[in-house]
Amino acid sequence: MSFETPFRPLDSGTVPRFAGPASFMRLPLAAPSEVDIALVGVPFDGGTTNRTGARHGPREIRNQSSLVRPVHHVSGLSPFERARIADCGDAPVNPVDPADSLERIERFFREIASAGARPLTAGGDHLVTLPILRGISPGTPLGLIHFDAHSDTYDSFFGNRYNHGTPFRRAVEEGLLDPKRMIQIGIRGAISDASNYDFAKAEGIRIVFIEELAARGIADVMEEARALVGAAPAYVSFDIDIIDPSFAPGTGTPEIGGVTTREAQALVRALKGVTIAGADIVEVSPPLDPTGLTALTGATILFELLCAMTGA
Fold it and tell me: Is 15 exposed, middle or buried (0-12, 13-18, 19+ CB in 10 A)?
């Protein structure tokens, strides 16, 4: 499949990668009404409970995405030849009022959905997934394929029910996600209480701990993930901390024992065939990794997600 589209990355043979405006994958800016897939940023980390900095994720992922080339080396296909894709800017946020930020982000994504575009988002901490789901909700619960070190189904932190450890609990409670069509892959690390996973288990959310992923292998686990969400629309959320911090140290809640970057790419490539309503890459915190490696990893995963969304 190929068709004419006005949205193409800058040619690095004409404009060097270190030159020109910083945009996702060197794409032009456009309105959601002009595209099939809207690449957007959510520069918000007001839900972070310890190490901040993810608000700077979208800008640095844009910078590092200048290294992304347009053709996937495995499939030989380019997502930019299969859909209209552009950088649609950042969601508005309020840096001193998280509740107001959630409302602003939700409105922004509702406009994207109303325009008929699917969002592919760079966060931001993981709380941003909640207003994204609110904004793109089709009125029936979506499935979810969730790559993360943490379940993010906790109830509250210091009495606050809206932080980066709670988005998927709130999304289930609000009817945005169908827990029977949710799978969380790569979960690991010590927990604060033995009851931390009780909500997820009671709701029927499938949790694949890192040990099971290692024992069964990526192909087998992802076959289960595709079968679990089925043909109905699903959302994909990728927290950079599923990756071992030796590969991606710039994140708010690192957990050792994660997947490699190559394994992360294999996980995302195995999404082929899933009906993806939207996707995100979150928790990239550039100030915690001055080398830029974590942001480059985030940009590369963003490209892999884009390929999965377009079948490239």
Answer: middle
